[in-house]
Amino acid sequence: MCWAGRMMLGTFSLLLVLVPTAAAACEFGPFPYRGTGIVCRMTKPGALLLNQETAQVIQAAFRNAKFPNITGERSMRLLGRVAYGLSNIQVNDLSIQSSEVELREDDAIHISIKNVTALFRGTLTYGYAGAWFLQLFHSVDFEIESSIDLQLNIDLMCQKELVAPDASDCYLTFHKLTLHLQGDKQPGWLKQLFTDFISFTLKLVLKREVCKEINAVAQTLTNFILDLAANFVRDKDIIVDISLASDPVIKASYIESHHKGLVVYQNSSSVLSDSVFSPLLLTESRMLYFWLSQHSLSSLAAAAFSDGRLVLNLGGEKLQELFEMEDTEVQRKAVQMVFQGTSYNDSVAKVWSLTQPQISPQPEGTVVRSLVAVEVSILPTGEEPLVALYMEQEITVTIQATYAEKKLSLQPVDSSIEIKVFKCTADPSGEDPSIQSFLQNMILVAGIPEVTSSIGSALTSLMNSKRLDLFDIINPEIITGKGYVIVQLDFGFPSHLLLNFFEKSL
Description:
The protein is of the alpha+beta class.
């Protein structure tokens, strides 16, 4: 499931990636579910877990906000005009007391950040022209203690056929804004003079700059996640198209996005118009769900076949394990006829698919059918390789998949084999049926499990190369139904991804 981690990353962005409102709605057909190949559902518990990491985004927004110099003036009795300027404004000692998230059905994701306390420092410069044309100018360092509540209402939109959260609905509520002046001979009257009319201006500037910076940080985070996603869904010439098939859905208990799930290979892909997806197929008991269509799985298998990836070479100890799974007279005779006295270390077996595998998820497991070739070659010293055995067989196998300890395992639970072609150098006439019977049994008992195990290991390596192993995936279940596969799991958020983002991007 090499695209599952991509979908997970994309889902994380629903709450953590906040982008501005400049997106036009996408257009979908009258029956969008029919073109749905992949579905991602995050339930309320998953959203609550992600919300715990929202503080990092908000803190980054405050820290990286570039506050402009604030200037103004005011007429004062006896003093004349008083002009002032606040410059070099910086944020220190930032903390967030709490953060809450609410999914508002068919509306938005509401995030409420409570009691953001921050200390703003800078320089206050002021001057006034008195009635006797006496001009005085002073500079004094200042500190502003603040306590702020922040509210974000995030709409989910479609922008360029991708999920685009819109967080322009941003509000700051000030519960405390206290000005402290230092180093001036008359801080008392000066503080009283400036506190009221500076506070109003400062509130406007803080709201504008903080909300703007939230969008700026979010846009950078969007690009960061999309870069990870683009890498995850692509492996050389094979790409999974995760463009939206319909508008994202917000319910009180979950967020859901529907994707095309088309596989693009060498710039060509098929069309999906008969998807069996229904929201009723997914529950709400786990944090995260991925629904995968038969079409998407079959297309991946077809692309892997066309790209020449469905090939396995076995030699040495692996060959010995297969051919010596039992110690019988028939087994010893088969080994002698096939290898002709050559050691396993001087032999190699090649297994590959001759036809595009047919993938059919069913309640009992995923059924795979394909015409498979097996070729055993011996490598006599100083001579050309000799093909000692060649077989073609129609294989049908039902596979159940599990994911545990960051490894994908594919376990065959039912298999059948029908030999179509049999050529053995030591038995060119094929008159000894016992040899074919032994080889057929060997393939069923040991060969197919070896192949599925190798495919599981290869897929695990591929997923881990895309950084899926960095996620804390808890109690995952892989459930098959007629025409689809569901992956459901709980997760722990990989905070190191955000730390990596903040270190590199900000």
